[in-house]
Amino acid sequence: MTPSAGSTVRASRPLVLAGGALLLLALALVALMLARPSASAPAPDVKAAASAPAETSADVGFARDMAVHHQQAVEMAFIVRDRTTDVAVRRLAFDIINTQANQRGMMLGWLEMWGRAKSSPGPPMEWMGHTVTPRGDGALMPGMATDTELDALRKAKGKDAEVRFLRLMTAHHRAGVDMAQAAADAAGTDEIRNLASGMVTAQRSEIALMADMLKERGATG
């Protein structure tokens, strides 16, 4: 005898209910697994936190101060990029933007990892064994341009903008080299020593390049 349609539906209902229950059980197990920490998940790096450089270390001081120093260099490079069509100057500006923005991110990241604030209420460059009296007008550290100088750069065009930028960035790099060399000599972490040493080499090379570019424009640093 062929089962009626009604009996077929009635017979299939328990199977549907059972399948639904199994699906809910499976979803609950998946949620439980996701909520529980995995046995293979990396534990917090307690050792790294415990061995973080001290608040007064050259590593922490350099990372903070150079992050500020780099920020202005990137700002000046963006300004001149929009004030000239000269290929060489725009290429240099592009390199500075990319390199120093990347390095700034690294230093801020290390401060975060070390559990150190990204700024200090103390005077800049204190970690170098001496305090610095800012020039004022926005120039917080040696080599940094004043707000007045930045405003003049924003108003300049063409060759005038190029010369202003090259002079400001040369002074900026010279002070940056001094700071980086001090960090390379005094830092306790490989991260800061290696980064600072690389900055010394790269910025000295750019200082020489900018000296040639200034000469091409009939100016000096």
Written overview of the protein:
- It is a single chain.
- With 221 residues, the chain is an all-alpha fold.
- The protein is 69% helix and 0% strand.
- It has seven helices and no strands.
- The chain has helices at 5-35, 46-50, 58-81, 87-114, 147-155, 158-186, 190-216.
- Mean pLDDT is 84; it is low at 1-44.
Strands, count: 0
Order of helices and strands: HHHHHHH
Give the N-terminus to C-terminus distance in angstroms.
105 Å
Structural class: mainly alpha
How many helices? The count is: 7
Low-confidence stretches: 1-44
What profile does the largest beta sheet have? none
What level of helicity do the residues show?
55-70%
The pLDDT mean sits at: 84
Query: What sort of overall outline do the alpha carbons produce when their principal axes are compared?
Result: elongated
Rg for CA atoms: 30 Å
* Portion in strands: under 5%
Short summary:
With 221 residues, this protein is mostly helical. It has 7 helices and no strands. The model is unreliable at 1-44 (pLDDT under 50).
Features:
221 residues; mainly alpha; 7 helices; 69% helix; disordered N terminus
